[in-house]
Specification:
Layout lengths: L1 H7 L1 H4 L1 H26 L4 H23 L9 H27 L2 H7 L2 H12 L10 H22 L4 E3 L7 H6 L5 H28 L3 H24 L10 H29 L1 H6 L3 H14 L3 E2 H38 L8 H6 L2
Antiparallel strand pairs: 1-2
Helix pairs in contact: 1-15, 3-12, 3-14, 4-11, 4-12, 5-10, 5-11, 6-14, 7-8, 7-10, 8-15, 11-12
């Protein structure tokens, strides 16, 4: 009876992680747009990464100490070394990502992020963070959902079709800046490297969360180590030049947005969702980014809405639902199995125990 109630509430448990990861993706797309604008005005991507993570560290330090004041796991040297490794992967991902966007555009950056679910799914299966048994319907649903979601992103990227909503012609200055002489080959290669680093980052972070379940502390140390690493590299590459100055309003606003919303909020929420759902669920929503980018382009930049965007968005939604359905089936099955074993052993199982063991 308790298991049925628990299983029936599995969908409710998924609501907040879904809302959270969607908010994180909105912040990510905004970060791409404003980061591209700042770098088009001459800001170094290395210095942008430093300022962003340094500001995020200052924001997260008091929040992490306040939020985890009663349940703070002990910091050990192995944990700190894993934090440093997480920061190194994040540093590489951010440098490659911003450089790729600088050479191309936020739209291509959002499109390339759809490679993350495929890379993450492969790594999660290899490291046994996701179950893969093709004889089970839940595993087939997750596999098919991943493929369909990536296919939807490719439809948006490669197929336009007839125009459904035509944009206005007098594009503003920011739109012109964001499309300034893109180099798609170099940009695409750098963004592909970003996707590989991001997938490895998600897997490592999921592993750390199992040993150190304190999300904000992990995000603080992540941003802290990224800031240190980017500062060292920036000093070597840029030296003590005028590139560090934030006298331009666009640079200043970009740093403020990236530090508060791009790093502190976006990474913090994504880490919490990762802890609750696992790496596959979070990475699947990278496909939503291109839909958000397309909508932002229509609303703010007067871009045209094509049939391909609609078809791709529908495919992405179906793919994400398929993964969510497969994941919820696994949780219900694991809960039933745990309850059955407990009954055979003659003990009672708390209602939420199977969920907490799964990290949902």
């Amino acid at each position: 009876m308790g298991v049925e109630t628990r299983g029936g509430g599995g969908g409710v448990i998924m609501i907040w992680p879904t809302v959270g990861v969607l908010a994180a993706e909105c912040a990510q797309v905004g970060l791409m747009i404003i980061g591209k604008a700042a770098m088009s005005r001459g800001m170094s991507n290395l210095i942008f990464v430093f300022y962003s993570n340094a500001l995020a560290s200052l924001v997260l330090l008091p929040l992490s100490l306040l939020f985890h004041r009663t349940r703070r796991p002990p910091l050990t040297l192995p944990i700190l070394l894993q934090f440093m490794a997480l920061g190194f992967l994040g540093f590489l991902a951010q440098v490659f990502g911003y450089a790729g966007i600088n050479y191309s555009s936020p739209t291509l950056g959002s499109a390339m992020l759809n490679l993350v679910p495929a890379f993450t799914f492969i790594l999660a299966v290899l490291f046994r963070m996701e179950k893969m048994d093709l004889r089970k319907l839940s595993s087939l649903a997750k596999s098919a959902g991943t493929i369909v979601s990536v296919a939807g992103a490719l439809i948006i990227t490669l197929y336009k079709g007839p125009a459904l909503v035509k944009g206005y012609s007098n594009l503003n200055l920011l739109h012109q800046v964001l499309n300034l002489q893109p180099n798609w080959v170099i940009g695409g290669g750098l963004l592909a490297a970003d996707c590989v680093m991001t997938s490895a980052w998600v897997i490592l972070q999921a592993s750390i969360l199992k040993k150190y379940p304190a999300e904000l502390i992990i995000v603080f140390f992540y941003c802290f180590f990224v800031a240190i690493q980017s500062a060292i590299v920036s000093l070597i590459v840029e030296g003590l030049s005028t590139a560090w100055r934030l006298d331009d309003n666009l640079r200043l606003y970009s740093v403020l947005y990236s530090g508060v919303f791009g790093s502190a909020f976006q990474v913090g929420v994504a880490t919490w969702c990762l802890h609750k759902t696992g790496p596959l669920f979070v990475s699947m929503f990278k496909s939503v980014g291109i839909v958000i980018a397309a909508v932002a382009g229509i609303l703010f930049f007067g871009e045209t809405f094509y049939l391909g965007c609609l078809l791709g968005a529908v495919a992405i939604a179906i793919g994400i639902y398929s993964v969510m359905w497969g994941k919820s089936k696994e949780v219900k099955l694991d809960g039933t199995t745990s309850a059955t074993i407990a009954q055979k052993q003659g003990r009672k199982v708390p209602l939420l125990e199977p969920i907490l063991e799964e990290g949902w």
